[in-house]
Amino acid sequence: MFDLHQIPVSIPAPDEQRDYPLQIFTLGRFSVARGVEPIRFARKAQHRPLQLLKALIALGGREVGSDRLGMALWPESEGDTAYNAFEITLHRLRKLIGVEKALVLSNGLLTLDNQQCWVDVWAFEQAAGQAETLLRSLHPNPDELASISSKVVMLYHGHFLGRETPEPWSISLRERLRSKFLRHLHDLARHWEKIGQHEAAIQCYQKGLETDDLAEIFYQRLMVCYQQLGRKSEALAVYRRCRTTLSLILAITPSPATETIRRRLTEV
Hints:
Elements: H1 15-18, E1 22-25, E2 31-34, E3 37-38, H2 47-58, E4 64-65, H3 66-73, H4 79-97, E5 103-106, E6 109-112, E7 117-119, H5 120-136, H6 142-155, H7 168-194, H8 198-211, H9 216-228, H10 232-250, H11 256-267
Parallel strand pairs: 1-7
Antiparallel strand pairs: 1-2, 2-3, 4-6, 5-6
Helix pairs in contact: 2-4, 3-4, 5-6, 5-7, 7-8, 8-9, 9-10, 9-11
């Protein structure tokens, strides 16, 4: 059975990561490793080059216009001033990461070479896409689905640059990845429910609430799963948590759908 609780809190580097000269982690934290050794960033002078790397990833990582990066990082500058700042910062970034071919600038477009760089965002999106394809098939192989889904969960260590104050250029990717992760957990859990694996579904819904404790659908399905397993007290505890969280954070009450599930529990 697929067990989210067996997934380690810290992520060991899989073989595919070690095959790349540069490894970049942005989900839940920001770090860069060259080979197997993390690069230590201590000086404030390194802040702007690292912001360039983060912005490049946030804007797609491939063929991102220097003018677009300039607007993201130097919004008050114009024309030659912004481009000169971009060139200087790119030069400093290349020296900082120490992988000569990692950053390719061609015709004003900057690319993070995916032959030189492993990026957790890219690996996450690839794994999530594979899981989505499997879930769309008529009869997904349970072992294959569990393996790929475990990888999705392992890679999503937290929100994109989650420990940092969101920048305008980072918000879109952060929200897209967060939404994709929650959708994966929901779709996976519904699949486990469909084939009677309610314990596995419960673990998915719990993981979803760790990511977004305002997602009422996760409370609802958790209540249903506990009901299916005859665990009424746990189902009602989920309802109380939902009611308290919604009240404290949004000053609202649970939806009619949630109340309907709660009434069914108390009527049994």
